[in-house]
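Render this sequence as a predicted structure.
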Amino acid sequence: MIKKIGPEPYKIKMVEPLKQTTKSERKKLIAKAGYNIFNLCSEDIYIDLLTDSGTSAMSQFQWAALMQGDETYAGSRSFFRLKETVTSITGYPYVLPTHQGRGAENILTKMLIKPGTFIPGNMHFDSTRAHLQLKGGFPLDLVVDQGLKPEADHPFKGNINLGKLENVLKEHGRKKVPFVLMTVTCNSNGGQPVSMENIRSAAGLCRRYQVPLFFDAARFAENCYFIKEREPGYKERELIDITREMFSYGDGCMMSSKKDGLVNIGGFMAFKDDSLYQQACQLSIVYEGFPTYGGMAGRDLEALSVGLQEVLDVSYLRFRIEQVAYLADRLQEEGVPIVKPPGGHAVYIDGKKFAPHIPQSQFPAQVLVVELYIEAGIRAIELGTSAFTEKDPDTGELIYPELDLVRLAIPRRVYTNTHIDVVAESILDIYRNRDQLRGLKIVYEAQVLRHFTCRFEFME
């Protein structure tokens, strides 16, 4: 039975018109785009579920904060306001803004990774993986077994496999493992949360082997909400206290603020250790900007300071998680194979099971992405064969990822529940006629992060 969803904890103050195209128009548009949704113009999208990154609607308090932005090159008061907010939430005293999460990834990997080193994590996302590999590192995905089984109904499928982590730390040691990265929530397998117990145990292993533990904290608030709802002993705890405990187990974090920062641009790094911060500052000046603005405008630093506080409001998070769960329930009721339980920011459809007649080499998840746009003007994203296939360095053989998913990422405070119903009904229409879907082939691809720019054609 579909759980009734509560009302939005906000009212609409400004609207943006949406353009509705015809099906015949969309067929031409997606063909011109090489059947890659990244190549579409936003005005040709009706409901955009490409990403929850940088797509949030800001509050009246954030818009007001923009007007307080101090655009001073060095020593901006807007930076110190952000620093105070980040330190209050994380406990980390050293804060460095970056233009977005990738800026933070670039600096951290340049600082710590040497060729031939290994970087364990629960599951590294696409841009993180690319930064690790470009610096000569080997990313290791050590998520628990349940995390790779879409049908497994486990409350914390983002957990890292502690046995595998200890084996890596024991085998390679501090010289070969520069840090461990815990992604909260875990984007690559469905926005799945990591339990506090798992974080605490992983931190204990890292301390034993003297390896730093960092968080990819893009969705830290959603992860902490799941801990409050699902983990014994946390139901009555205040969300800010849960958040502070989680960060206390790490040595620092990097964050794309475009997610749980509720802003359209920005990121930051934060550290316990002053020496790591000083190294990061030197690289920031080269790649991002002076350490008190780090590639961000003062107005955006102000908006982020407010967003990081608003995201910890339980009423906001409850609605956020319930809206995602509502979409999942509607799809599950009709038998659509999804990653269970639904995560915090998106519903993930299992492409291989949605269209089992299409081999993984013909991108079944990407096929669904294309058909969803043609059917209803809805943009989703494939996170599977196109995004994560790698080549064996010795044989050149393609290594397909275990999961081939379609992510329906829900922007924060943007779409109404009626929009969510339109998404559900459109997917169900495709599912009822899924036997008619045809595979795709790649006709152009880049060497790095190919899914952003590659072009496809339908198989004959």
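Summary. The mean pLDDT is 96. The chain is about 40% helix and 15% strand.
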